[in-house]
Amino acid sequence: MWTHWVASFLLTNFVQGALALVWCAGLRGAVGARSYAFRARLLEWVLIFPVFVFVLQQVAQQIFSAQTADSFVFARIDLWLASISGEGHGLGFPIKLALGFLWTLTTLIFVVQEVAPLFARQTGALQTSVPHPRLEQSKLRICKNLSGVTLAFAVRVYEEEGLNAFLKGLFRPVLYVSSGLMSKLNDEELDAVLGHEWAHLYYGGPLRMLVIWFLRALQAANPAALIAFRSLVETREKACDELAGWITKNPEAMLSALRKTQVADLSKAVASGAPKVGAREEIIRRGEALSLQERVAAIQLAEFDRPNMGLTWVLLPMLALLLWGIR
Questions:
Q1: What is the per-residue pLDDT across 19-28, written as a single tens digit (0 to 9) for each?
Q2: Is the pLDDT of residue 282 over 50?
Q3: C-alpha distance from residue 222 to each of 23, 106, 219 (Å)
Q4: Are 34 and 303 in contact (CB under 8 A)?
Q5: In terms of Cα–Cα distance, which of 38, 20, 51, 18 is closest to 236?
C-alpha cells in the first residue's frame, strides 16, 4: 500500500537524518574544527547522505537478491511500522497521530520559511541596476589581494534605501549592491562585502545552494533536515565572513560593516512604529537581527584555517554504513 511506503520512507528518513546530525556533531568535536567552512561541509553531509543512501538502497533491492540487499541491516523501520499498525496494538494510533502532526508541522515550516522567501526573491522585480566606479575599484582591490584572480561575477548598484548586497544568477552570477549600502560603507567595508560575496562563490555559490535546497525539499517533512538546513545557512554566512576577513586582511572591516547593518536595522525598527507589520514579517525581522548579532559575535572569535579533510573522508564511509543499516 502506497501510504505505508510513504510512512516508511518518512520515518526512515527522519531516523537516518537524526543519526547523521548526531554523527557529524560528534565528528566536528573529535576533529576539533574551528573553521565555519568545515562545519558547513558537515551540515551539507547531513542533508546529502540520507537521500544518497536511500537511493542506493532502492538500487540494491533491484539489482541484488533480498538477502544480499538486506545485509548489515540492524533497524527495520518497515517492520516496526507494520507492528504498530496491526490490530490489538494500543499505541498504534497515538504514535501515528503524533508522527503525522510532526511531519505536517515540519512541512509547513519548510513552506513558510524556505519556499515562500525563495519564490519572492526569484520573482521580485529588481530596480534598474548600473555599473559603478567605486564598486569596480573595490573589485580590483579584491583581485589584487587574491594574487590577480578575477572575481567571477559582475558588480552593479541599484537604487534602494535598504542595506542589501546579494548574488543573483546560477551560471553567470551578478552581485547587486543597494545604493543605501554603498552610502553607508567606506571603501574598506565595501571591500569586505565584496569579499564576502566572493566567498559564497568560492564555496559553491547559488548553484550549490540550489542543489542543497533541492535535497532539503525532498526531506521537507524531516525535522532533522530542518535543523541541519537552517544551521547550514547561518554557518555559511559565518564562513563567508571568515574568508572575507582573510581575503581583505582586514576582518575589522567586515565586523564594522555588519555592525552598521545591525544599527541601521535597529533604527529602522524603532522608526517604523507607525506602520504595523504582520506576525510573519516581525518573526523574520527578529530572526535576521539575531542572525546579525551572532555573526558579529562569531567574527570576533573567528580564526580562518583550512582544516585537513583527510580524516573526514575516512570516517564518512562509516556514516554511510550506519545509515545503510536503517531501512
A1: 999 888 887 7
A2: no
A3: 17, 7, 5
A4: yes
A5: 38
Q: How confident is the model at residue 284 (pLDDT cuts 50, 70, 90)?
A: very low
Which residue intervals of the chain are DSSP H helices?
Answer: 2-31, 36-63, 66-69, 77-85, 92-110, 116-123, 133-145, 179-184, 187-202, 205-218, 223-248, 251-271, 279-301, 310-324
What does the pLDDT average to over 111-127?
69
What are the phi and psi torsion angles at 175 (to 5°)? -90, 120
Asked whether the predicted pLDDT for residue 143 surpasses 90, the reply is no
Give how many domains the chain has, as a whole number.
Answer: 1
Whose cell is 536511500? That residue is 54
For residue 97, the enclosing domain spans 2-324
DSSP states of 4-34: HHHHHHHHHHHHHHHHHHHHHHHHHHHHT--
Cα first-last separation, the chain: 17
